[in-house]
Amino acid sequence: MVKDGNKKINPVFRAINSITDTLASLTAAGIFVVVIWQVIGRLIGQPAPWTEELTRFMFIWLIYLGIGIGFRKVESARVTLLISYLPKFLQKGSVWIYSIASIGFFIFMVVLGIELMSQQINTNETSSVLLLPMWIIGLCVPFSGLIGIINTIQSLIYDRALIEEEEVEN
Amino acid sequence: MSIFLLVLFFILMFIGIPIATSLGISVVASVIIFTDVPISIVIQSMYSSMNSFIMVAVPLFILAGIIMDEGGVAEKIFDFAKSLVGWMTGGLGHVNVLASLIFAGMAGSSVADIASTGRITINAMTKNKYPLEYAAALTLITSMLATIVPPSILMVVAASTAGVSIGAALVGGLVPGLIIALIFMGYNHYYSKKHNFGVHQKFEWKVLGREFIRAFPALLAPVILLAGILSGIFTPTEAAAIAVLYTLFVALFVYKGLSFKKLPNIFFRTANLTGTILFIAVTAKAASWVFEYDGLPTKVATFISGISDNKIVIMLLLFVFLIIVGMFMDATAAIFILVPILMPTIHSVGIDPVFFVIYLVVLLSVGLVTPPIGVCLYATSNITGMKIETLSKATLPWLVVTFAALLLFIFVPQLITVPISWFDL
To answer: Among B51, B223, B238, B306, whose Cα sits 20 to 30 Å from the Cα of A55?
Structure first.
């Protein structure tokens, strides 16, 4: 049983992590830059209406990227204080209960997220100001589900001790 | 259907499944079992829940808090607070309250307060002969302030969910935060005097002046943020971005605790934390769809107005109810679920919705410091090595003081509503 977080991370995981982390950092930085742009634009009398829409879309992507990434180090808030009061078989299976439930919900997000995207593609839905195809925004849901699955698997391999830990994480 | 959802949610949550996932699974199960509505409604609801410009203030407040923390601001705040109130009876206890209050004005998260200023004040207090239990309990209880005073992340979430002015709710948190801080200081004075805690130090104008100058750039951050919102020049989201710009400047060029090299990591941590916090909001939004489909808001409104139509009686009922909910449910989830359910009642009884939103956040912040799910309780236990049980026991007297303070707002709501009315928000 792997109990420590020092095991060398598989290069495939490392590459995926690097891509998602860079995307997340860029999105957070992008939101800051665009909102500042909006303020400056308004103050100099040249408001940029696209900034509000772009900020909202980047915000949605930011949340969904963060959701998936948060499962790599088991950071999603949970209550484990009461696990020690549960029957023994449930205590022993707590890592699997956590993993199966998390991955199960992420699979739901992937499948239904793809359905949402296909609807957006079929109806040619575009945003009102930037005229962006809306599936680009909808893509964040299945994408988040996918990286959520990959990150939960990583936490099972490299950070199982964190899943077993008896405390509320936030 | 609503009861099924809640029962399933609590079962899943208490067997260790993440809160957000527990809510999501319960929503999916409820929709499948009790309705003919296509299951895609859950994803639709989750996807559209965060399509809001006003909520963008949340990651920006998180970003500003991380920058300030990385920039080495906590020590400056502590030194300034110490030079200002450290000479009084129970000096370092007052420093603890004041440092938390100032930090609260920069960061919107209570857990962040414990990790930064909390760590420093606990060390200083124990070195100064305060019992560890006392220092830890005070640090824990004062962490609530970050959730109450602007820029509070939960306040943005609650105001946005309730559809009231975010600026008004943010600013409205300031006075209750100050009053609660003063009450904490009063109790600290009484308790420290009674038990003769701490070694007293002298007050020196010179030291105060020096520490004020050192802390001044940091102290200006909340002023910029509030002035931006109050003047009406910026929306709360824009004011948050300006605060980020300012804190970046201070951390990079004034305190120099931050380097450009660290920026990608800071942006990454912002994304990570935003996703972690708002995942709960996203699934809670889907849960609130179920409650509305089930007609719960109307049922609750009818039930509550059947008990009494007296504002104070209803607020007292909500006081008890929300403290209990806060103990067992994550505050973000509670806001997304309860606000749509309770708003019809609030409107029908004639309670000011902005007052209610502020009061709701203040009450739910109690749940951050109580077992079994108080995240601040766990954070304090982590940094002190104290057992949850011991820490909870040491916090009890402070909770009683807090409840007294919170009841005050029910009987004198003007403490919250009047300052807001001074501004055009």
So the answer is: B223
User: What is the greatest pairwise CA distance in chain B?
Assistant: 73
Category of B100 on φ-ψ map: left (φ > 0), alpha (ψ -120 to 50) or beta? alpha
Q: Is B263 on the interface with A (CB under 8 A)?
A: yes
Q: State whether residue B351 is helix, strand or coil.
A: coil
Task: Give the number of A-B residue pairs with CB atoms closer than 8 Å.
Answer: 188
Report the alpha-carbon distance of residue B17 to residue B46 in Å, rounded: 19
CA distance B215 to B102: 10
Residues B193, B89: contact at Cβ < 8 Å? yes
Among A94-98, B397-401, B420-424, which stretch is predicted with the lowest mean pLDDT? B420-424
Confidence grade of residue B140 (pLDDT, cut at 50, 70, 90): very high
The percentage of chain B sitting over the pLDDT mark of 90, rounded to a whole number, equals 50
Return the SS3 of A126. strand
- Asked if B158 and B335 count as a contact pair (C-beta separation under 8 A), the reply is yes
A-chain CB neighbours of B264 within 8 Å are: 22, 25
Distances (CA, A) of B252 to B71, B212, B237, B260: 7, 20, 22, 7
B231 touches chain A (CB under 8 A): no
Nearest CA in chain B to A19: B268
Q: Does A36 touch chain B (CB under 8 A)?
A: yes
Q: Which residues of A touch B39 (CB under 8 A)?
A: 112
Q: Model ipTM?
A: 0.91
Please determine, for residue B309, whether its predicted confidence score (pLDDT) is greater than 90. no
Asked if A64 has any chain B CB less than 8 Å from its own CB, the reply is: yes
- Which residues of chain B are within 8 Å of residue A86 when distances are taken between CB atoms? 15
CA–CA dist B319, B322 (Å, integer):
5
3-state secondary structure of B126: helix
For residue A68, the chain B residues in CB contact (below 8 A) are 275
* Interface contact B275-A69, CB threshold 8 A: yes
**Integer Cα distance of B116 and B160 in angstroms:** 28
Distance CA(A99)–CA(A153), nearest Å, equals 8
Total-model pTM? 0.87
Q: In angstroms, rounded to a whole number, what is the distance separating the alpha carbons of residues A120 and B7?
A: 35
Bridge partner residues of A78 (DSSP): A169
- Give which of B114, B30, B54, B46 is closest to B381, Cα–Cα: B114
